[in-house]
Structures are given as structure tokens and as C-alpha cells.
Amino acid sequence: HLQEFVTVLVRDPRTQKEDSWHSYIDYEIFIHTNSICFTRKTSCVRRRFREFVWLRQRLQSNAVLIQLPELPSKTPFFNMNNPHHVDHRRQGLQEFLEKILQDALLLSDSRLHLFLQTQLSPEDMEACVSGQTKYSVADAIHKFASLNRRFPVEDEERKKGKNDADSDSESSSSGLGPSDDSISCGCKASPASEES
């Protein structure tokens, strides 16, 4: 009998601009597993601290009797530009997920799977779980998987279409919207290459 495993890594913190005044950091969540609980055996999404807070609240309200692990504290002194602060938070988020993934009851909550294996927003995850969307939880995760395979091809097409060049460079430099790596798991891209 093969030992079931779930590897979860929280890594590659990146600063994202919300608008000219606000920025936030998001982190890549990488999952590799052979567990039957998971729709996909590997996945790679980006989430911000606020979404972790949402996830913890929702899991807690569903599993009242479980004492959920804590998230790294939300300190008013958190400094996005301080690598030590960012890494400390990244580690805390990873430990939080590691503990949650050891609990069978929490693993049965669809929100957790949507959080870990799709880029749906909290509102969309909530709607999906409560059956208000056309797609099921599994659909959402599979759709994300097929997007993974299709996207690089579409991206090449877009680069060929010269007339889109303007909007293209704008969207890639603003860091908003699904940049290639948020979808295609080209997670190794170094920040330097992104700046140019």
C-alpha cells in the first residue's frame, strides 16, 4: 500500500500593485500529492494573506469543534519591503496549510480545494460551494487544469498579433490579471526577467 502524501509549499512572494496607492504580496501555493482527496495531483496557484484569513474563517465555521491552527499574526508593523517579515509570513502560511492538510474533516471542505487548486476569488469559491455556479467544484479544478495546458499556445498567438502589442505590454508590466506564470506554473521565472 502506497503511503499517501501531500506536499504543500508556499513560496515565491511577489508584490502586486492593486492601484497606484496600494500594493500587496501574494504567494505561490504549490501542491504535489497522491491523495485521492485531491482532484489534481499537482497544482500551482497564487494567493494573498487576506484570502488565507477568509479560508480560515470559513473552515472554522464549518468545523466548529476543531481548533484550527493559527495564521501568522497580522501585525500593523508588517513591512512588505522587509524580506525577513515576508519570509516569516510565508513560513507561517506554509505551516498553517501543512497542519490543515493533515485533518481529514477539513480536507472534506470543498473551499479548501478551490483555494488550493484554482484562482477563484473568495466570492466565487463561496458561490461554487453553495451550488450557485454552473460549474461544480471538480469542474472548476479541471477547468483550471485545462487552462494550464492551453494557455501557452494562446499566449504565443497573442504575441504574433502585433496589433495587440500595446495592451499586451501594458498588462504584463502592470502585474495585474493572469500573467503567464500565475496560470502556466512557469513558477521559476526570476523577478529580474519580469522587470525588464
From TrEMBL:
Residues 5-122 form the PX domain. Residues 170-184 have a biased composition (Low complexity). It comes from the Eukaryota. It is a peripheral membrane protein. One of its GO terms (cellular component) is endosome. Its main location: cytoplasm. This is SNX10 protein. The lineage of its organism: Eukaryota, Metazoa, Chordata, Craniata, Vertebrata. The gene is Snx10.
